[in-house]
Write a structure and sequence with these properties.
mainly beta; four-stranded antiparallel sheet
Length: 111
């Protein structure tokens, strides 16, 4: 069974950085369609960044220039580098690869 295990969330001050990781078990990493969403209480899950087929990436306008999605095929791991974090980035972040989802990791940006 495919599992995605997320890590890297936590508490950070405004302007700080975090790197989220999403490690996949099983040989699904060559699948198209992977990325990150986030969700805050009472709101729908929001697209943060996606990696589509080929070399295409897509970012929410609110994170462009601050967040970077990347992947390490040898490690079957998807990353989200988050810089210049703002309080409004506070959310539970979820990774997905193909049809599989991670368990979510909390990111809190606060002074």
């Amino acid at each position: 069974q495919v599992q995605l295990v997320e890590s890297g969330g936590g508490l950070v001050q405004p302007g700080g950085s975090l790197r989220l990781s999403c490690a996949a078990s099983g040989s699904i990493f060559s699948s198209y369609g992977m990325g990150w969403y986030r969700q805050t209480p009472g709101k729908q899950r929001e697209l943060v960044a996606t990696w589509t087929g080929g070399s295409g990436t897509n970012y929410a306008d609110s994170v462009k220039g601050r967040f970077t999605i990347s992947r390490d095929n040898a490690k079957n791991t998807l990353y989200l580098q988050m810089n210049s974090l703002k309080p409004e980035d506070t959310a539970v972040y979820y990774c997905y690869i193909s049809i599989h989802w991670g368990q979510g990791t909390q990111v809190t940006v606060s002074s």
